[in-house]
Write a structure and sequence with these properties.
By secondary structure, the protein is of the alpha+beta class. It has 29 helices and 18 strands. Strand 13 and strand 14 form a beta hairpin.
Length: about 1000
Amino acid sequence: MDERDSIYLDAVSIGSDGANGGRKSLYLSRQTVYHSAEELPTDGTLGRTRAITESMLNDSRANGGLANLPYEGRPTNGGGILKRPGLTTQYRPETWNRFQDGKRVVDFVLAFNGHLQNDEEADRKRKIFQENLIREGLEIEPETTQRIHFIKIHVPPEVVSRYCEHMKIMMPIVKLKDQENIITEEFSIGGSLVRFFRRPMFRFVIIDRDKFRKREYRLLHEYSREKCYLFDADAPDFFTPSIRIAVAHFILERARFGLEDEKYDIGLRKLLNDQVYLDAYPLHDGSPDLPELECQRTLLLEEWASVIRWIKHQPLDHIKEYFGVKIAMYFAWLGFYTHMLISASIVGLLCFFYGLLTFRENRISQEICQDNTTVMCPTCDAKCDYWMLNDACTYSHISHIFDNNFTIVFAVFMSIWATMYLELWKRYSSDIQHRWGVTDYCLLAEPPRPQYLARLKDTKKTFFNIVTGAQEPSPPFWTKKLPSMLYSYSIISLFIVLALSAVFGIVIYRMSLMTTRNIYGNPDDATTKLLLFSGTTAVINLMVSTVLNYAYDYVAVYMTDIEYRRTQSEYNESLNLKIYLFQFINYYSSIFYIAFIKGKFPGYPAKYNRILSFRQEECSQGGCLVELCIQLAIIMVGKQVIALILEIMLPFCWQKLKEFRSVLGLATEDADNKGPGGEQLICCNQWTKDFNLLSWHDRSLFEEYLKMIIQYGFITIFVVAFPLGPLFALLNNVFETRLDAKKFLLYYKRSVPRRVRDIGIWYNVMHVLGKIAVISSAFIIAFSSDFIPRLYYKYLLNEDRTEAGFVQHTLAIFNVSDFEEGAAPRFSKFTNVTQCRYQEYRNPPDHPDRPYKRPLFYWHMLALRLAFVVIYQNVVSFVQIVVAWAIPDVPGRLQDQIKREQYLMNEYIIKQEKRLTDRRKGGGGGVGRNGTLTRQQSSLDDYGTASLLEEEEEATIRVEEEKFGAPPRRRNAGGGQTTADINERFKECEIVTSRV
């Protein structure tokens, strides 16, 4: 058995079983969630549908399979009988995204090549899979009029209701009395000023409320069919399209396509991997090409995804309704991050302009530019000549622009900014989480992956899930979980070492190029140096990193597969962390080398420090900080420009290529791979049009997060060397937001809505990057800039307390007769050179005791550098702690609102349950057999009473039973609930109330 096949084993199947005569409790369904095809039967309408479905399936088997499944005799929502319609390839607005009856909406689509011959195994799997979907209550309609066959899936309301309860989806409840008074504005001077100026001055950034109407405020509660009085489930828009899509995908991922003893044949993912189905996707809401079809997608394209709307706020609630919480949370975070970059960009511009306005008055630059007598030692062995100090005049001016007195202020600001950004994001996201009903969502509530259950099929160890109340299988820690983790991260560490080795190899290449670059041309030619020295290393770095990226991605996926990750979210986060660790090394290693290693330990002309006989690189004429700034500018700005171009060009080209191949009939080949698989695919409805779009996969959103987190590292870890980084990041993100929106809406299939509580592991990554940024800024200021040496010279060595003579102080003297063998220039345009200068703190050659050794003040300066690192890190860390403490994660206003909501909701539930109990005691009607009030009674204002006729109440009971498939409650001989049942319900209400 292939090890990879063991990941497809078990799943949950919640269906109906009329034989059992009643619906099992949801608690028991969770206990059996790990057994194949375990069903939660219902009575009423679902039971009758089950009987009809079984007879239909039996007839279909006799008539040649599910492809010939008859439509005659199938019940519709209106109670009638559906006749088989004639399927055509003509455009019909009424069936653009619906079944042929024009009423039932297509929630999900399965596509496969219907012209492939001699593929009986795939036909058998599709037949069994679709039969099981019907048993689950889904309604399907095949469309076989073209080369690509489509299976349209509709989720009936009773199935949505059943699975919403199982998936613990938070749904809006009925409007309660006095709920308008729950939301109160929290008074603050800052908030009042913002509201005062926002209205007249910033009205142009507010989205158009006529187009994006604000949702009516409703309290949210976990959906339960037993508390039907809480929900207005009769409303046509109560179960939104995103909920129906999520339910359909949940069923598809857990339906079988094999026999009961074939434990690996479960789930849509396996069928897609085996090419049984070409694709599976939910439908977009309309098409921009058809303006007569008013849809949410077109509105989002025009008002949100358009670049000309870049200054407008994002309609986050509408994005959430269309794409789900996961994608909406990404855009909420990206918008918040972009807004926070405004303040960082302003301070960065101030730092840049300060250096730009003062570089001419900089004393150090003046000394370098006016010095025409100091001869500097060559920068490489034998091939390089001496050079004059004033050759570095331009570089010294550039260095001052980025390395000035304002730099340390900017570094401290950015360290505090990073903490404020994270704390304010937690505060901002808490409101979003509450509004979207994901505050209490956790991974324990997420169903286990079928692949995870497959590997634990035979395990005996279990753990109690406190959220679902179920006993779940658990991998033994010492024999399975720990070995798999050690093996996985050992391989990951090996690849990280390989990445570092590649960087080390490039550094060695740069060192070797230093001594041989003159054979390619004039070594003094700046163009040749730029193209040869930087260009070749960049090309090699790109090739090596690209190859390692592909290899590492494959290894990361394989290593994550062998780990025991319970849920899909845990799996994705583990995979994201592995890939980010590699990308961190891949993107930042060369920058770390320039910032902290290059030019720090070169030695001196009489004794250079060498690696593999190659002389180490020295900083350029302007210092390593200038090189670091140039490197950051090229990598960050260059990659962003290229990424923005590819952001829209690549999806556009791939989508058009796929559409072109589909139109020509080249999308798939026949069974013998000899040619096209049939006629052209005519886009006559939404599912055929969406078929040509790019497929959405689990890592689609990961790529977007990765780009932004890499950018965040650039503007925090190395921002000291490039104060314009936040500004370029801001400009990039303004366009990134709109281009991502356009890409998701126009070129990708609609994603399956998923619930998440936050941005996941990326918050922790940014938190770690903030800590690294403090240490990095401290070391860059202390060791890469001349901030500490200037202060030391000005206040401890120079009696005038000025920087006059600082340049000469930093240059050591070397006697050219002391060159080590092979280091002196072979040919030189300078004559009569007896001494040269090099940038180091060393004794002169005529020192009586320690020539060319470190002087005492060097060690004093080193101690000051290290002391600065310690002080800077502790002071900034203390300020970060104070800022984090001063900004609460949840606003006080929101905390009070949550308490008031819980109190009001619990009061409503208690009153309704009390009235329910009173009616049972008195033998009154108005109570359904599922233990809830009738719809008429629960909709009364102020929890008032009403006199309902017994006949109306009994009719309501029957409607509720048929609608919700409610199970009969335990009753005593008199027809009422037992005292134990009543006490149990009151205990539940008391427990809920006590939590407030």
